[in-house]
């Protein structure tokens, strides 16, 4: 797919969270980071899917004054999910224990850079040019680093476009065809 350049004309930085709203996915990191940016910042987070802590997460966002930044979309049709990717500038993946999630491949396919915790599988698939890696340290450090990253891309929107172009340039390395080739190379070495 081609990169949707029209989205960069949008004055609002569109963030996208796709995944189960449960503790291991780390949604509180991004919610808490939103408390550390300007209350009038031109940023919006779409949260797609639901989960066991959705009501608590919504209540937390209300209590901490960040609900105005968030649209809770729940479970939506896959075509709508891809529509959200196409409008988004930055995909948020703060999972605490995922190797390589489908949402990473969806973001790559649509040319959307990802903000990830720099561990597990995300460490290997997101480059410093095609996304934002957050050191997986303590809670406060992660939240502060995410907030700092959000402030950087809000202040300098060219970073988002540059990262998106890098995603397009790098994504073939992670295509199903290329992944199959890599496995065949590994198996050939083992023979």
Characterize the structure shown.
The protein has 191 residues and is α/β, with parallel strands linked by helices. The chain has helices at 27-34, 54-63, 78-87, 102-109, 122-125, 139-155, 158-170, 176-190, and strands at 13-18, 43-48, 70-74, 90-93, 114-117, 131-134. It has a 6-stranded parallel beta sheet, with helices on both faces. Strand 2, helix 2 and strand 3 form a beta-alpha-beta unit. The longest helix has 17 residues, at 139-155.
Number of helices: 8
In helices, the fraction of residues equals 40-55%
What is the mean pLDDT? 91
Spatial strand arrangement across the major sheet: 3-2-1-4-5-6
Shape summary? globular
Range of strand content: 15-25%
Task: Note poorly predicted spans.
Answer: none
Q: Which secondary-structure class do the elements indicate? A: alpha/beta
Topology, number of strands: 6
The major β-sheet equals: 6 strands, parallel
> Which value, in Å, is the CA radius of gyration?
17 Å
Q: How do the helices and strands follow one another from N- to C-terminus?
A: EHEHEHEHEHEHHH
- N/C terminus separation: 37 Å
């Amino acid at each position: 797919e081609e990169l949707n350049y029209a989205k960069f004309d949008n004055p609002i930085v569109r963030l996208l969270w796709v995944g189960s709203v449960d503790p291991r996915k780390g949604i509180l990191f991004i919610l808490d980071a939103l408390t550390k940016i300007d209350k009038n910042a031109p940023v919006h987070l779409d949260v797609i899917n639901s989960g066991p802590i959705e009501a608590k997460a919504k209540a937390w966002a209300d209590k901490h004054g960040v609900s105005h930044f968030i649209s809770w979309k729940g479970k939506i049709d896959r075509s709508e999910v891809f529509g959200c990717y196409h409008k988004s500038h930055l995909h948020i993946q703060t999972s605490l224990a995922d190797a390589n999630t489908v949402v990473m491949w969806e973001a790559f396919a649509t040319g959307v850079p990802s903000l990830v915790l720099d561990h597990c599988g995300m460490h290997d698939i997101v480059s410093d040019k095609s996304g934002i890696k957050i050191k997986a340290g303590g809670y406060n450090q992660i939240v502060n680093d995410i907030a700092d990253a959000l402030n950087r891309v809000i202040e300098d929107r060219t970073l988002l476009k540059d990262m998106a172009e890098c995603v397009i340039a790098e994504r073939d390395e992670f295509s199903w065809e290329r992944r199959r080739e890599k496995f065949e190379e590994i198996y050939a070495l083992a023979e």
